[in-house]
Amino acid sequence: MKKKTSKLDSRHASLRVVRRLQKAGYEAYWAGGCVRDRLLKRRPSDYDVATSARPAQIQKLFRHTIPVGKAFGVILVVEGGVPVETAAFRGEGAYKDGRRPSKVFFTSAENDAQRRDFTINGLFYDPIARKLIDFVGGRIDLRKKIVRAIGDPVQRFREDHLRLLRAVRVATVLNFRIEAKTWRATHKLAPLIKKISAERIREELTKILCSDHAARGLDLLRRSGLLKILLPEIEAMAGVKHSPDFHPEGDVWVHTRLVMSKLPGNRTPTLAWATLLHDVGKPRTCVKKKVKGSWRWRFPGHAEVGERLARRILDRLKWPRADTQAVCDIVANHMTFKDVQSMRLSTLKRLLSRPTFVEELELHRADCLGSHRMLGNYRFLKRMQKALTREQVRPKPLVNGHDLLEMGLYEGPEVGRWLRQVEEMQLEGDLKTRGEALAWLRQNIVSSGNS
Ligand code: ATP
Ligand code: MG
């Protein structure tokens, strides 16, 4: 028997909202991204509703509403526990700062479609009558796989500069072409992106990097001119040569975009960003050496320099601190994977128990596939992961600080050093029980003259 869940899914919840609005005599449709995604047989991330009802009328009709953007006509209707973004058809007054309209006014469905960004995002669907409503030619562009601005692209990008990046994002995620006039406008106006807030830029870039077509997304970012404005440190990778022995694929930029393309489909944002940034230290650490008569390029310390640059970039994009730390850890650690087969057991276990290990291993795999293609270290780690139990990788400590104080040590760094030493021997398998650990400590603390 199917389990009954109390929460509706987004589609059902939005369907109820539409039905209720229509019953009350208003026009109401699914709008924007969800209509586009359904026609493409993609799963919509959420279902938005657009209606002829005004915000106050929406609020009157439903029991549980949250006026998230009442001034813009947007009300969250909570239906069966699921929030449904329900917006009055609206038009927009002049934009002042390239970010927000000076005012909005309530209008017809057709005018609401006209203020949306791209034709494929300007569609409505009536889920009761099962009818598509297309005022902007979005259906044809969906079929042709084209991202085209609604109206004059230069004017639309001047109004709201985030649309520059949204064009690249939508084209990347859907693997669509950007129509010629829209593309020329993107290229021409790319510098305006500087005026957009870091958070909004971060959201769009993350969607690009998490897409299956992230490598193409990087190409579009670069060719549009957006990359050198938003991420000059990444642009700097182009033309930084690699040695053909480890990197037959090409320069640091070519390698990075190839590695992006080797990531699994369901990557986390931290893995996606860490992959983009894993070699960001290379342009600054590059040294050229002659080895046996031919030139070789090496990048000493690039992981550490990369970590510093990654932090600077993520801070600039106002990332949450914990995520920044995770990305920086992955970048800083990525070179240790080449040594895993010669590591001490304790070092290996510490690697396996790192909070970011799963992502680090995915990056390592993609890094190899995007260069020399040797997966020996990856396979070794997969085998070790299987062979070792959780308890073996991260055993409960045999002793604690109290034990050491009872042996006569004073509080201080010395205690930590002894604990680490015991942990090391436990991970190596040299100490197995608490009794063994205590005996070993007694003997060694005495002989070192510390107690
Ligand atoms: P996703 O699947 O990532 O949610 P989406 O197209 O639904 O993609 P949203 O940011 O959720 O993107 O926006 C919902 C809709 O609002 C879009 O489909 C588009 O019609 C409209 N829209 C969003 N941002 C803009 C903008 N900057 N300018 C004009 N219209 C916009
Ligand atoms: Mg959406």
Description:
This protein is of the alpha+beta class and 451 residues long. The protein has four domains: 1-144, Beta Polymerase, domain 2 (2-Layer Sandwich), CATH 3.30.460.10; 150-230, Hydrophobic Seed Protein (Orthogonal Bundle); 240-393, Hypothetical protein af1432 (Orthogonal Bundle); 395-448, Serum Albumin, Chain A, Domain 1 (Orthogonal Bundle). The chain is 51% helix and 12% strand. It has 24 helices and 13 strands. It has helices at 10-23, 33-39, 55-61, 109-114, 138-144, 153-159, 162-174, 180-189, 198-209, 214-224, 226-230, 232-235, 252-261, 269-277, 282-285, 302-316, 321-333, 345-352, 357-369, 376-387, 390-393, 401-406, 413-428, 434-448; strands at 28-31, 48-51, 65-69, 74-79, 82-88, 90-92, 104-106, 124-126, 131-133, 146-147, 177-178, 287-291, 294-298. Strands 3-4-5-2-1-8-9 form a seven-stranded mixed sheet. β12 and β13 form a beta hairpin. α13 crosses α19 (357-369). The longest helix is centred in the last third of the chain and has 16 residues, at 413-428. It is globular and about 90 Å long. Adenosine-5'-triphosphate binds next to α7. Residues 32-33, 45, 48, 116-117, 121-122, 160, 162-163, 166 line the site of adenosine-5'-triphosphate.
Task: Give me the secondary-structure topology.
Blueprint: H1 10-23, E1 28-31, H2 33-39, E2 48-51, H3 55-61, E3 65-69, E4 74-79, E5 82-88, E6 90-92, E7 104-106, H4 109-114, E8 124-126, E9 131-133, H5 138-144, E10 146-147, H6 153-159, H7 162-174, E11 177-178, H8 180-189, H9 198-209, H10 214-224, H11 226-230, H12 232-235, H13 252-261, H14 269-277, H15 282-285, E12 287-291, E13 294-298, H16 302-316, H17 321-333, H18 345-352, H19 357-369, H20 376-387, H21 390-393, H22 401-406, H23 413-428, H24 434-448
Parallel strand pairs: 2-5, 10-11
Antiparallel strand pairs: 1-2, 1-8, 3-4, 4-5, 6-7, 8-9, 12-13
Helix pairs in contact: 6-8, 7-9, 7-10, 10-13, 13-14, 13-19, 14-17, 14-19, 16-17, 18-23
The structure holds adenosine-5'-triphosphate and magnesium ion.
Magnesium ion binds next to loops.
